[in-house]
Design brief:
1 helix, single chain, mainly beta, 8-stranded mixed β-sheet
Length: 107
């Protein structure tokens, strides 16, 4: 399961409705470093399924969900409105922060 997925930040800027969190992945060596029982931390990679069926990947130190920054990744299986904005800066060790915003879908 090491297929390469496009970085979600490369999507065209705008709003994407009904984006589903399809999968959570952990980076190689994550469990060995933190212990087998730990499920928290920034090493979660979130695979998002777009309405047309394509998939992209998102990872960050923090995720903005409903206007709140947290180290918790968006919930698996949940539908979100994804807002893609221009990057606010680049980190040497990781992706740009602040360019993706998740909003819980009201049904």
């Amino acid at each position: 399961m090491t297929s390469e997925l496009e970085d979600a930040r490369k999507l065209a800027h705008g709003t994407y409705n009904d984006v589903i969190v399809a999968e959570h992945r952990r980076s190689a060596g994550y469990r060995a470093a933190l212990g087998a029982t730990s499920e928290q931390g920034p090493a979660v990679h979130v695979v998002l399924e777009l309405p047309e069926g394509s998939r992209v990947i998102d990872w960050a130190e923090t995720y903005e969900i409903d206007g709140v920054d947290s180290s918790a990744a968006p919930r698996l299986g949940t539908s979100y409105r994804l807002i893609v904005g221009p990057p606010t800066g680049h980190s040497v060790d990781g992706p740009a922060r602040g360019s993706l915003h998740y909003e819980t879908r009201s049904r």
